[in-house]
Amino acid sequence: MNDQQLDEFFRKRIREKEETFPDSIGDQDKLWQMIRKKKTQRRRWRYVSGIAASICLVLVSLMLWRTTNQSTEFDEDEISDLAAISIYTEREAMDYIHLQCKKGNPSCESPEFVELESEIEMSFTEMREVERQIALFGEDPVLLKARARIEDQRGKIIREIILML
Amino acid sequence: MKLTDQELVKLCLQNEDAGQRLLYDRFVAAMARLCLRYIADPEDAKEVLIDGFLRVFKMLKKFEDRGINSLEAWIRKIMINQCLMHLRKKRRVLFVDVSHQHIETDLRADVSVSAEEIERIIEALPEGYRTVFNLYMDGYSHGEISDLLGITESASRSQLAHARTRLREMLDKQGWK
């Protein structure tokens, strides 16, 4: 018998055997009941794990939401702190400049200093005007932008003067 | 009246329990025999058969009808994969050359070889030989067998050759020529 004949011989008998349910596996109906039971168990497990996953998701979302909120509050506090520091530093810087000039610092007489000082004066005038308009028209984005630009410019000028002194 | 494969699948998807029971009744004998061919232990084979049917039911909506017997071929493939997964999990597929070993069978020499005894002859093969032989009997090429079992094609050919030699020896013992 060659290989092909042998294979055919086995294939044929394997197929013949497949027509009858093997006794060693047990009862066909009992096996179906076992399949149904396992199917129900799996479904229940999927349902329970689905609920557990949803609860986890809600908890994680809640935690994230709280963390984000806390960090936002912290950021706002930090910003107001920084603003206070900035205002305080600006005033201090101006006091320092005036003190230096009173003490007779030669740089106070230089044309650059005079020019920068007049720029600061201008910035205060501009700022007063912008504040007046904000009080009149409310916190318009264009006005707020203008206020931020003036503050930024003034800060740069003050830094330049201090470096000069 | 016997439902066609397409009608049966449709029924399974519409009326889950009744349809699945019909599908189970139609294929359970063949699939139980198939599992027993790959997994000698009846208890393990039963577990694999149960998981195999659950997988079939789960995947049924993905089934594509490709003509006559395509449903059976599709279920067979799922069952074979399930059997191979079980063998891999138990690390029972050992591809060793055991051609020098003597294999005992309890087949009687004075009777003609029936389909039932053929099953026992296959069962008596070493695991590696048996798995390759079964896959080959189920229509897989050596290339596919090498992919499924993670062995080379030449190893698959050699395992099959050893399996055939061993089967011939056992058939000779039965007086079958």
Describe the structure in your own words.
The complex is a heterodimer of chains A (165) and B (177). With 165 residues, chain A is mainly α. Chain A has helices at 3-17, 28-102, 111-137, 141-164. The longest helix of chain A has 75 residues, at 28-102. In chain A, 7% of the residues are buried. In chain B, helix 7 packs across helix 8. Mean pLDDT of chain B is 85; it is low at 98-111. Chain B has 177 residues and is mainly α. Chain A binds chain B through residues 1, 3, 6-7, 10-11, 13-14, 16-22, 24-26, 28, 31-32, 34-36, 38-39, 42, and chain B through 17, 21, 24-25, 28-30, 32-37, 42, 45-46, 49-51, 53-54, 57, 114-116, 118-119, 122, 136-137, 164, 167-168, 177.
Please outline the helices and strands:
The complex is a heterodimer of chains A (165) and B (177).
Chain A: H1 3-17, H2 28-102, H3 111-137, H4 141-164
Chain B: H1 5-14, H2 16-38, H3 42-59, H4 70-89, H5 115-123, H6 127-137, H7 142-149, H8 153-173
- The number of helical segments of chain B is 8
Number of strands of chain A: 0
Structural class assignment of chain A: mainly alpha
Averaged pLDDT of chain B, please? 85
Approximately what portion of the residues of chain B adopt beta-strand conformation? under 5%
Low-confidence stretches of chain A: none
- Strand tally of chain B, please? 0
Shape of chain A: rod-shaped
Using CB atoms under 8 Å apart, which protein chain pair has the greatest interface? A-B, 27 and 34 residues
The total of helices of chain A stands at 4
Q: C-alpha Rg of chain B, in Å?
A: 18 Å
Outline the biggest β-sheet of chain A: none
Mean pLDDT of chain A: 82
Order of helices and strands of chain A: HHHH
What fraction, in percent, of the residue positions of chain B are helical? 55-70%
Rounded to the nearest angstrom, the distance between the terminal CA atoms of chain A is 111 Å
User: Beta fraction of the residues of chain A?
Assistant: under 5%
Helix residue percentage of chain A:
over 70%
Order of helices and strands of chain B: HHHHHHHH
- What is the molecular shape of chain B? globular
